[in-house]
Design goal:
The protein has 515 residues and is α/β, with parallel strands linked by helices. It has 21 helices and 11 strands. The chain has helices at 2-5, 43-47, 49-60, 76-81, 123-129, 159-166, 174-187, 204-219, 221-230, 247-257, 298-322, 327-331, 334-352, 360-371, 380-384, 387-405, 410-422, 440-455, 460-471, 475-478, 485-508; strands at residues 34-39, 66-71, 88-95, 101-108, 111-116, 135-138, 194-197, 236-239, 265-267, 272-276, 292-294. Strands 5-2-1-6-7 form a 5-stranded parallel beta sheet. It is globular and about 70 Å long. The structure holds D-mannonic acid.
Length: 515
């Protein structure tokens, strides 16, 4: 780190010194106006929204859509990027034909402001209400919506929502801040707004809309009616793998840049972003950077959640318990690779049905090679977090469909069994880890109670059946699925296999494809 510390900081005055192969903003940053307020300015948003926006600004010369990035929790991003005047490097990484890691670096310049909600809670509604603001976008992760994972309903008893209803001036949840911002906007010029969720949730725009309306209904019904009438909530699907930035990434990217970048972002080159073209106050011409402006994002989002995210989660739980630290390491293991292929081909794709214009086997093959990208070091523990918020729309939807279709689902059941095993908090070698999940305490109780139910049983099979039945009675995640004896038996069979053989052993022992 010494060499890096001796470097100048990435900043506008030192930009001209970066090597010629690194792209830097080719427009006048001083002209940019803050047209987009982005809630949750983490690596994910900086790897797609800001990257695409950068390209659109460069190609169209439009300067009304600079981004003000808001951190809803910690000041870390702002602490790193304010001294860099919002500049940061995006490193797109993969491997060449010989398998040698390579990266393409670009300094992104359209982040024009950084805010931290807990430090200045009253500022966010003002920003949302500001006339220059035309779009509020969100990547606050699944848990940031304060919804019931099984039903999608707003949790009025969620600590942040209860706080925001009681303290209108200083909201701390995204939903609370949006409603208070829209309230000020409505009282002011009354100009409507586009609210664009970019999170991995089914019908993310419709969901955001229903949560915002539910909150507004609680505190200001006429406002709810105005929002309902005037504001738009386009649905979207974004697909790009963005691992958490490590210190090694910081060091390597700073060295390549010749300037110290405290928070670069690493991602795969692949990007697909489809969004419904419903923007009431205009939008950048993101299509010049490959964004698909569509009538309905539904087919895109269904495909992505059930294929990319479902297999990611299945792989993550199995890998954590097997002690495989990264996605590419997991994909290098033959039983895991075969399992992921079979999961998509035998169970997910048939439940999904045909999607117009998409060659599903080709999509699955491309996805497997994205997962095998050796240059990302995507931590399986990162994907494993917040399972309670992810499983319903990633895995349980396909299981519900297969139950309705009367088709078996041992491979999907394996993913659920792996989550249960993961929630026990230690891998197969006994190494303990922390469960990172907003419902961690409730899940720990559920797992403990499930373990007790298993103790009373007479045989290993009955023990697993009892354990799983108890665990899946947790309705916030499993809803009505927890009552299905077919579901319980399918998960119990895989849970027993995991206990007996370990994750990789259980995968290797899975019965062959059905004829
Ligand atoms: C991952 C996603 O962490 C996770 O839950 O499944 O972030 C995934 O990498 C992206 O959705 C890919 O587009």
């Amino acid at each position: 780190m010494e060499l890096v510390n001796a470097m100048h900081r990435l900043s506008p005055e030192h930009l001209q010194s970066v090597p010629p192969q690194v792209r830097t903003p080719a427009y006048d940053r001083g002209q940019l106006q803050p047209g987009i307020v982005h809630l949750g300015i983490g690596a994910f948003a900086r790897a797609h929204l800001a990257a695409v926006n950068e390209e659109a600004i460069e190609q169209t010369g439009e300067h009304r859509f600079g981004i003000t990035g808001v951190s809803m929790r910690s000041s870390e991003t702002s602490d790193a990027l304010v001294p860099q005047s919002g500049l940061y490097t995006l490193a797109l990484r993969d491997a060449d034909a010989e398998g040698k890691a390579r990266q393409d670096l670009r300094v992104i310049g359209n982040l024009v402001g950084l805010r931290v909600t807990p430090q200045d809670a009253a500022a966010l509604p003002r920003l949302i209400a500001a006339e220059a603001t035309r779009i509020v976008s969100l990547t606050v992760t699944e848990k940031g919506y304060c919804r019931d994972p099984a039903t999608g309903a707003l949790l009025l008893d969620h600590a942040d929502i209860a706080h925001d209803l009681a303290h209108p001036a200083v909201p701390r949840s995204a939903i609370g801040a949006i409603v208070r911002g829209l309230e000020q906007r409505h009282h002011g010029a009354g100009v409507p707004l586009t609210l664009m969720s970019l999170d991995n949730l089914p019908s993310n725009g419709d969901l955001l809309r229903s949560l915002v309306l539910a909150f507004a209904q609680e505190c200001n019904p006429p406002l709810a009616a105005w929002i309902d009438r005037e504001c738009t909530f386009p649905n979207s699907m974004v697909d790009r793998i963005v691992p958490r930035t490590s210190d090694a990434d910081r060091e390597a990217i700073s060295a390549a840049l010749g300037l110290q970048d405290q928070w670069p972002v690493v991602a795969e080159p692949f990007l697909q972003w489809a969004v419904e073209d419903r923007f009431v106050c205009g939008r950048p011409r993101w299509e010049v950077a490959g964004v698909q402006l569509v009538d309905s994002a539904r087919p895109f989002e269904r495909l992505k959640l059930r294929m990319v995210n479902a297999t990611h989660s299945a792989l993550a739980y199995l890998s954590v318990i097997a002690g495989l630290p990264t996605v590419d390491a997991a994909m290098a293991s033959a039983p895991m690779r075969t399992y992921i292929q079979r999961l998509t081909q035998e169970e997910i794709i048939p439940a999904l049905g045909a999607i117009p214009g998409v060659d599903l086997p080709a999509f699955a093959a491309a996805m497997a090679s994205r997962f095998a990208n050796p240059a990302l070091a995507h931590q399986t523990q990162q994907i494993a977090m917040d399972g309670s918020q992810k499983l319903p729309q990633r895995i349980l939807v396909s299981i519900t469909d297969r139950l309705e279709q009367g088709t078996p689902f041992p491979l999907l059941a394996m993913a659920v069994a792996a989550w249960l095993r993961y929630l026990e908090g230690a891998d197969e070698k006994g190494a303990a880890y922390r469960i990172n999940d907003p419902l961690a305490a409730a899940l720990a109780q559920q797992v403990a109670a499930a373990g007790e139910s298993a103790l009373a049983a007479g045989s290993p099979e009955a023990a697993e059946q009892a354990r799983v039945a108890s665990f899946v009675s947790y309705t916030p995640v499993f809803g009505a699925l927890g009552d299905s004896t077919q579901f319980i038996s399918a998960v119990a069979a895989q849970s027993l296999a995991l206990r007996r053989r370990g994750a990789l052993g259980a995968l290797a022992a899975l019965p062959g494809p059905r004829a």
